[in-house]
Amino acid sequence: MNTSSKTYKLVLSAMLGAIVIVLGVTPFGFIPFGPMKLTILHIPVIIGAIYGGPTVGMTVGLIFGIMSVFQAPADITFGPVWATGEVKNYLLIGVTAIVPRIFIGLMAALSFKWAKKIPRKVSLIGFGVVGTGMLAFAIYKLVEMISTSESYYMYIILIAAIVGVSIWTILTIGKRSISVVLAAGVGTLTNTILFLTLTYLFFGNLFAELFEITKKAVADILVTAGITNGIPEMVVSIVLISAIVAAVKPKELKDS
């Protein structure tokens, strides 16, 4: 790695890390989605992975994770754990907050690199299955919201976003769309799955005791949260990252 490349990655890591911090301490890092708030703090991590490879992605992810540790006392998930005052739990919070965020950068970078090797037909089938699943979920939630007279506009927006991303992907299927969509999707899912898995493994018993529920109920709550928040967050990631990459192509996609 030459000096200019090292400087580029250092500057990119610092810039995206600063964006993560700003998003984390301001309302701009969260998008209102009905009663929920979708986080977009993982997006700079995935962008770092796309434009700077695994080193930049993992560095920005580390910054994301460290910031999450500092915010743990006020966090809806970590707050009750932090309140126990046990050093062991502080350490486990650190692992749960940092490890998934580092892996966002790693998995997004690897997905972005490997996607160009995926045959067009396989890509179309894969995107079709995933897109159909997300669309079915959004339609199901829309019907559920309408039947219970709850605010449902956000799911109409979500359906429109899924359809729009699907059309863009099909029309531009090739190195760019495959790489970007896969990196955004895999990066987002990595964060959701690893974070919820570690939360259950480390704090499942504690949550069951604190809220006087069974450990299975804790698992059900985490899975529901993962599906309800994870799918919209993945769609938002794909939309925003696709727009950014369409405007400023990474070096690997300059000629694609």
Quick summary of this structure?
This protein has 256 residues and is mainly alpha-helical. Helix content is 78%, strand content 3%. The mean pLDDT is 85.
Commentary on this structure:
The chain has 256 residues and is mainly alpha-helical. It has a single domain (3-253), classed as Arp2/3 complex 21 kDa subunit ARPC3 (Orthogonal Bundle), CATH 1.10.1760.20. It is built from eight helices and two strands, in the order αββααααααα. Strands 1-2 form a two-stranded antiparallel sheet. β1 and β2 form a beta hairpin. α4 (87-114) packs antiparallel against α7 (175-210), α5 (120-147) runs antiparallel to α6 (153-171) and α6 (153-171) packs across α8. It is globular, with a radius of gyration of 19 Å. 36% of the residues are buried.
Please render the helix and strand layout as text.
Blueprint (H helix, E strand, L loop, with lengths): L2 H23 L4 E4 L2 E4 L3 H28 L7 H5 L4 H28 L5 H28 L5 H19 L3 H36 L4 H33 L9
Antiparallel strand pairs: 1-2
Helix pairs in contact: 1-2, 2-4, 2-7, 4-7, 5-6, 6-8, 7-8
- As laid out across the biggest beta sheet, the strand order is 1-2
Helix and strand pattern: HEEHHHHHHH
Estimated radius of gyration: 19 Å
Query: How is the main sheet built?
Result: 2 strands, antiparallel
Under the CATH scheme, which architecture would be assigned? Orthogonal Bundle
What is the helix tally? Answer: 8
Strand segment tally: 2
What structural class results from the helix and strand content? mainly alpha
CATH topological fold name: Arp2/3 complex 21 kDa subunit ARPC3
Fraction of residues in H or I helices:
over 70%
Mean pLDDT: 85
The rounded distance between the terminal residues' Cα atoms is 24 Å
| Proportion of strand residues | under 5%
* Residue runs with pLDDT of under 50 for 5 or more positions: none
Shape: globular
Specify the CATH class.
Mainly Alpha
